[in-house]
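Researcher: Let's try something more involved. This one mixes different molecule types, so please make sure each is placed in the same coordinate frame as the others.
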Amino acid sequence: MHATAAAAQRLAELTALNRHLQTAREDERARLARDLHDELGALLTAAAFDLARVRARLPAADPETLQRLAHLGQVLDSVVAIKRRVIEDLRPSALDQLGLPIALEILGREFGERSGLQVHLALQPVALGPAAEIAAYRLVQEALTNAAKHARARQLWVTLQAAEEGVELGVRDDGAGFDTRLAPPGTYGLAGMRCRVEAEGGTLVVDAAPGHGTHLIATFPAAAPAR
Ligand SMILES: Nc1ncnc2c1ncn2[C@@H]1O[C@H](COP(=O)(O)OP(=O)(O)OP(=O)(O)O)[C@@H](O)[C@H]1O
Ligand SMILES: [Mg+2]
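Model: All components are placed in one shared frame. Result:
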């Protein structure tokens, strides 16, 4: 086989493998989220009922016992909250139920409240398949984490819109920026973003320079219209 044809075939194989691995990972996360929801959820509900029953039977217990029961109730509430957070992180339910623009809006708003950064959102409805939507959502999650961790930014812009070549997703911050040629060893955030975007047939451009902020632009091919 001609060398360039062999290289092209190898690239196509790697792209298919990459896509398969990304899908397998998201499927596994969704399964874990379901198990946690169903099994842990059922146990926690049963424990909360038992606690309420014990409390009702001990209206005149000594103060220490009552205090311990109250504390047990608080612990249960915290575990329920953690369970919810872990499940939501494993499989963003907003994405399935409300679609990408609203899921990103919730993500951006909550991030702004937590981090104190000013987050500007301009999110249009776009035509993307479910796997590309997950890739886009995970990209924004990691970009927001990076902005909080590395950028010392004050403002952040997240944009989603139809573009000539498909769908364009942008995350920009006004922080420290960095030299894109110097990827620190053992870091996977940006590499993971690129893998996810390329698995969907898209491209990722990282536009950053020290002192000039960071701008990530992912372009996805538009999903074929349903027939
Ligand atoms: N928004 C940003 N502002 C400034 N520097 C950034 C930004 N995003 C990434 N960087 C730089 O690029 C490097 C690589 O980012 P990447 O997300 O791949 O790794 P990381 O965040 O260091 O580690 P992790 O593997 O946990 O994501 C970071 O260590 C940081 O130096
Ligand atoms: Mg990172």
